[in-house]
Amino acid sequence: MTSSRSASIRTSSLARTKGLTSLLGAVCIGLAGVSLAGTVPFAVAHAQPADATDSFAQKLAVPFQGGLVGAADAPVFAWQMNQAGVRNIWVAGPDGKGRQRTDYTLDDGIELSGLTLNADGTRLAFVRGGDAEFPDGDLPNTGPALVAPRQTLYVLDTAGNAAPESIGQGHGAAFAPDGQRIAFTREGMIMLWSPSGQAYRIAKVTGEVEELIWSPDGKQILFQEARSGHSLIGLIDLDSQTLRYLGSTLGYASDPAFSPDGSKIAFIQYLEPPAELENSTASFWSLRVVDVASGAVKTVWSAPQGEGSQYYGTRGRNLFWLKSGQLIFPWERTGWLHIYAVPATGAGDARDLTPDANEVENFRPTPDGKAMVYSANPGNLDSRRLFRVDLDGKRTKALTPENQFAFYPVFGGDRLAATVTDATHPAHMMLVDSMTALGLVPQVPSYRQPEVVTFKSDDGVTVHGQLFHGVGKGKRPALIFVHGGPRRQMVPAFSAMYYYSNSYIMNQELAARGYTVLSVNYRSGTNYGRAFREAQGKARAGASEYRDVLAGGKWLAARSDVDAKRVGIWGGSWGGYLTALALARNSDIFAAGVDFHGVHQMVRPVAESFSPEERLRQYQLQWDSSPMGSIAKWRSPVLIIHGDDDRSVPFSQSLLLARELTARGVPFEELAFPNERHDFYRFHDWLVSYRASLAFIDRELGGKK
C-alpha cells in the first residue's frame, strides 16, 4: 500500500520475524457464503478490488443496518445501511417495501447519522460527515480526502429519486410541526432553515446543544444544553426573539418534554453522588414541571431514599408526557430498570408498568398514548424481546418470538418496526405486527448458534457468557472475548451495534478455524441488574470485573476439549483494557492477546472531596487496577491495534504500552491507523485489523494456518 492513509504496521524486532504487511492486500467485499433476501435487487458497491477467495472478508462485508426512525403520523420509516463501508440511506413507505434512497459508492469513512423524518414522512433530514459521538469536535478524515469532509446536513424527499439537498453545516435536525422548517445546531449555534431560503442563526449559547424540540404550535424551540459539570433547559420564542432558561438548578437537567398543549415542560433533574460516597442511597433525582408562561417550577416526583435513588436511564429518550396527563420514565426501584408512570400534576404515586420485565432497554408510548412498547429480557437475561403493556398495567403482550432478538422499537404512524437479529441474520428492519422485512434480510447460513453458559467467579458472582464451539476434534486452542463499554451485554446472536456485530463475525470465524471462544459478560455490564452493573471495586476502584475474566479463562482451560496451554484473549476499548490486564497479571494462563485501543494506565485526578490521605490511597488503587501496575509480570505476546485520532481512548495509551513492553523485552506486534477514530470508520481498516488478528492468533496459539 502506498497511500499515506494506509495502516502503518510493524513487528517488534524483539521477537517477530514474520511481517504482517501481506495482510494489507486486496480488500474483498464480495458476498460468497452470504445470502440476501429483500424486496428489491441489491447491487454490491465495490470500494476496493475483490478477492473472491477470502470468505472471511465476504462475511465481514455483510450489510449492517441501523439508525431506524419513523414518521409521527404516517407508516414511513428510514434507516441507514453499511455494506463494506459503503453507507446509504433506505426508506420504506406505506407499502412496507424498502428502497435505497442515496447512491454513495465508496468506503470513504464518511458517516451517515442523525436521521429524522417530518410528521407525514414526506421529507428526511440526515447528516453526512463529522463524528456522531462528538458532533461539535474536530472533523475526522479517515479516508483519502486531502481535507476533512465537512459535517453537512441534507434534506431529501422520501418519494422519487431527487438528489439530497444540502441545507448547511451542522447536526441535530428537528422538523417543525409544519413539516417544512428545520432547526439544527452547530458549535453552540441554533440554526433555522426553510425551503424558501438559506439557514440562518437564531441563537448562540455557551455550551453544547444536545437536543432540539419544537412546541406543538411551532412557535417555540426547546433545547437541552450541556455545560461543564451540569446541563440546562432553554426555550427560544421565535415571535419575540428571546431565549430564557427554565428551572435552572445545580446538577443536570435532561430529557425535556412538552405537555400535549405546549403550556408546560417536564424534565429529569439529577445530581451525581460525590466520589467518596458513590454508593449513597440519598435521593439524587426528581421529575420537575415548568409552567411556560410564568416560569414556575414544581417538583412532581422525587426518588425516595434507598434502591434507585441515583438516576440511571435507558439508551434512548427517558421521559414522555402522554395525552392522559401521565409522565412515563425509567427507575431502578427494584434494583432492575423498569418503566413507571406518575401523574404530571404530582398527585399520585409512581406505578411500575413493567414489574416482570427484568431489565428494560428501550421504551416508547404508542401513538394514542394508551399503551407502551418496550424491549426487555424477562425470563431469560440473555434475550431481548418486544412487549406491549397497557398504561393501566393490566395487560402485557409479547410482540416478538423467543428465537429473535429485537431492539429499538420505533413507530411510523400506528405501525411498529424494530431492529431484529439472530444467530445467522445481522441487524435488519422488521414490521413487528406482521413480522415482515422492510428491506434486505442478509444471512450467513454457515454460522452456528452460540451456547449460553454461566460460571462462577472466585467471589461467588454468577457470570453469563456465550460459547462459540470450535470445529474439529480433540483439545483445541481457545480464546476469551471481552466487550468494551463496559456498559454492554453480548447476546448469542448478531449485535444491533456495528462494532459488536463485527466482533460476533470475528468470534464465528475463530470458531470456524478451530478455536473455542468464550464471550464473557463481566460485572459492570448491563441487563443483569443494578448490583451487577455497579459492582463493588470495579474499574479504577479495584478492577473487580477482571475476576470474571480470569474465572472465564480458568473455566475454558478446564474443559476437556481445550488445550490449557493455548488459551488467549482479545477485546477492544474496555475489552482492550481487560485484555492487557489479563496478560499483565496472568501470562501463566493467557498465552497471547489482541488489544484493540485499550486503556493501559488508569490513573486520573482524584476528586477533591477525598481527604489528602484517601487521595493517596485512591491513586495507588488506580495504579494497581491498571495493566501498568502489573507490567513487570507480563510475558505473553500481544498484538496492539489503535487509530491515532481516537477521541475515546487516546493513542498515547498504546504508545505507553509499546515503550514499556519494548523496555522489558516482551514480544508484541503493532498496527496503527493514521487518522482513524475509536470505532473504525472504514471497512478496510476493520478488515486489515481482523486479518492481522487472525494471523497473529494462528501463529501464537497454533490454530488454522
Automatic annotation (TrEMBL):
Pfam families: DPPIV_N, PD40, Peptidase_S9
Record-linked SUPFAM superfamilies: alpha/beta-Hydrolases (SSF53474), DPP6 N-terminal domain-like (SSF82171)
Transmembrane regions: none
Lineage, top ranks: Bacteria, Pseudomonadati, Pseudomonadota, Alphaproteobacteria, Sphingomonadales
Domain Dipeptidylpeptidase IV N-terminal: 287-406
Gene3D superfamilies linked to this entry: alpha/beta hydrolase, TolB, C-terminal domain
InterPro entries: 6-blade_b-propeller_TolB-like, AB_hydrolase_fold, Peptidase_S9_cat, Peptidase_S9B_N, Serine_Prot_S9B/DPPIV, WD40
Domain of life: Bacteria
Organism the protein comes from: Qipengyuania algicida
GO biological process, any: proteolysis
This protein's name: Prolyl oligopeptidase family serine peptidase
Domain Peptidase S9 prolyl oligopeptidase catalytic: 509-703
Gene Ontology MF terms in the entry: dipeptidyl-peptidase activity; serine-type peptidase activity
